[in-house]
Description:
Nucleotidyltransferase, domain 5, globular, 251 residues
Amino acid sequence: MFYLDKSTLQDKPDLRRLGKGTDWGAEYAKRQKSARYPALKRFYAQGAVSGDTPLCEAPLVALDFETTGLNPKTDSIVSIGLVAMTTQRIRCAQAQHWIIKPDTELKSKSVVIHGITHSDVADAPTFNRVLDELLEHLQGKVVVAHHKDIETRFLNSAMKQYIGEEIVFPCIDTMSLEARFSRTFKRTFLRSLLGQKTPSIRLTDCRSRYHLPYYRQHNALTDATACAELLQAQIATHYSDEATPISAIWC
């Protein structure tokens, strides 16, 4: 998992307007009619999770990518990890991990971070070979990610390259949730004067605040699982009412 700066994360207007107040059912119905790629059309035809669905009943899938670099315009996906989940259970038997042959150069700097080497990707499938299965895992679920802009930007960049279409879906961003939950992240002028730093909201640091175990970072499946566990801890800590609708935390 990489972290992108704000200048890299400037979404197109059509995608930027979608968010917390979106009627995802209507959005999916509209896009199902216009989608050309069969697996994408099936994804939208499955329908979106209703925003009224209680947190405890919502079908979720945690998703993480490892990439060749930080810029979706010049870098590409090198591995995908995902795991189906609910707020009470992580379905490890349904987990999936792909090593992907990247469309761009596998840089030595990224190899040091995620440990995926040139020999690992030599015979790996290209993104389009796993796209249909990936969409099947995502359909009918709310995506969970830590710093969701990484996944959405890299996924759409790859899809546009291979099928000429992009995808939208409701997403829960555990990093944004952590910033929302803790007032300590609101850095004040007084804190600045005292030299106090704003607490980190990186995945590992967030997990430590909930006393979750340390996992080695930058394996897509491990990070997806770590994100799933973090969301469960966040909900257990901050939401006592199991009837809280999923729309209260998606974006």
